[in-house]
Design goal:
177 residues; mainly alpha; Arc Repressor Mutant, subunit A; 2 domains; three-stranded antiparallel β-sheet; 6 helices
């Protein structure tokens, strides 16, 4: 047994994750009852509705959902005739997404539900605090996007450093000849 360690337990990313998990679960359950779709499905429909002709890559970035999951979800939304895919006229490798009329109707039905749920989740904050929170979150998201290239570069260097260190035996350990 040991004494409690003095560790930081309220990292911002952990707090954001906890808040997200709790609100996402509630939101998804309500959307599934009201629309028959998950919160992720609704997020994709909103992104497509807001940017008709959005490509798969842009959709992945806009929704922050893993690429293979976006592909699977879009296929299901196409099957349900809520989304239409169209091959790009300038680049046949690009697939553009559009809402069908049924998709438009469904995302418009979901909009007041989302607004109501957000208001209930945030009713512990003043309007000014909500604006500040939204501004700070956008600032964090933009900062992450702006630093992504350097992060990937540093991560590659770290991996390289770790792999070259793992091939070198610890000091004092004789090398095999």
């Amino acid at each position: 047994m040991h004494a409690p360690l003095q560790l930081k337990t309220d990292y911002i990313n952990v707090l954001l994750d906890m808040a997200t998990e709790r609100t996402r679960d509630r939101g998804s359950r309500v959307y599934e009852i009201e629309t028959g779709l998950s919160l992720r499905d609704i997020r994709l429909l909103r992104a497509i509705g807001g940017s008709p002709g959005i490509t798969m890559g842009q959709l992945v970035q806009a929704c922050a959902i893993e690429k293979t999951l976006v592909s699977k979800l879009i296929s299901a939304l196409v099957q349900r005739q809520l989304v239409q895919r169209q091959i790009g006229s300038e680049d046949a490798r690009q697939i553009h997404m559009y809402l069908t009329q049924a998709g438009i109707d469904l995302v418009l039905q979901a909009e007041p539900i989302g607004q109501e749920m957000e208001a209930r989740f945030l009713d512990c904050l003043s309007a000014s605090e909500v604006d500040t929170l939204r501004r700070i979150l956008h600032k964090i998201i933009d900062a992450e996007a702006g630093s992504r290239d350097i992060f990937e570069f540093l991560l590659a260097q770290l991996r390289e450093s770790k792999s070259s260190n793992s091939s070198t035996p610890p000091s004092g350990t004789p090398r095999k000849k």
